């Protein structure tokens, strides 16, 4: 059975699993994000700061199935969803959707109005990569296609819309796709 809990500093085994999931979960599409356990542990620690939201999906055996973080922006009116990762063998089973729905509830409790996120395209996973995004941007966004399983479609299924793009955010032709949802 899946349970959503707070991920806190007094859970060393879960924190180590959270770091492992970052390294493992981003290895295929964006290995530079958290290339090693040290950088992943730092990210997990950052997400445990008091103003943050850090939630975990665990099973009855204490296995971490996935986790999600939320960071307040704009005086708490907007929250950034960062990061989210689901264990490879648990994907497409509702863990990510459950984590997002839980984060949305947590943000509402704190008075948040919007959740936003950036979903980078660093490996030509969408038609926005390697495109000139400085001309006719909105037409290119309207015509976006998923070429390699980019997660923007997952977020759309969760009710998020593309609200912008930062061209060249990760190098020439490697944009960050901004998505948001009004709560």
**Number of helices, counting only DSSP H or I runs of 4 residues or more:** 5
Return Rg in Å.
Answer: 16 Å
> What name does CATH use for the topology of the largest domain?
Aminopeptidase
Q: What number of structural domains do the residues give?
A: 2
Could you name the CATH homologous superfamily of the largest domain? Gcn5-related N-acetyltransferase (GNAT)
Task: Provide the low-confidence segments as ranges.
Answer: none
Give the helices and strands as they follow along the chain: EHHEEEHEHHEE
CATH class of the largest domain: Alpha Beta
Overall residue-averaged pLDDT value: 96
Biggest sheet: strands, sense, closure? Answer: 7 strands, mixed
Task: Write out the strand line-up for the largest beta sheet, numbering strands in chain order.
Answer: 1-2-3-4-5-7-6
Given the helix and strand composition, which structural class is it? alpha+beta
Principal-axis shape equals: globular
Architecture (CATH level 2) name of the largest domain: 3-Layer(aba) Sandwich
Rounded to the nearest angstrom, the distance between the terminal CA atoms is: 27 Å
Residues in helices, as a percent range: 25-40%
Question: How would you describe what is shown here?
Answer:
The chain has about 180 residues and is of the alpha+beta class. The chain folds into two domains: about 1-110, Gcn5-related N-acetyltransferase (GNAT) (Aminopeptidase); about 115-183, Gcn5-related N-acetyltransferase (GNAT) (Aminopeptidase). The chain contains five helices and seven strands; from the N terminus they run βααβββαβααββ. It has helices at about 10-25, 35-45, 95-110, 135-140, 150-155; strands spanning about 5, 55-60, 65-75, 80-85, 115-120, 160-165, 175-180. The protein has a seven-stranded mixed β-sheet with strand order 1-2-3-4-5-7-6. Helix 1 (about 10-25) crosses helix 2 (about 35-45). It is globular, with a radius of gyration of 16 Å. The model has no long low-confidence stretch (mean pLDDT about 95).
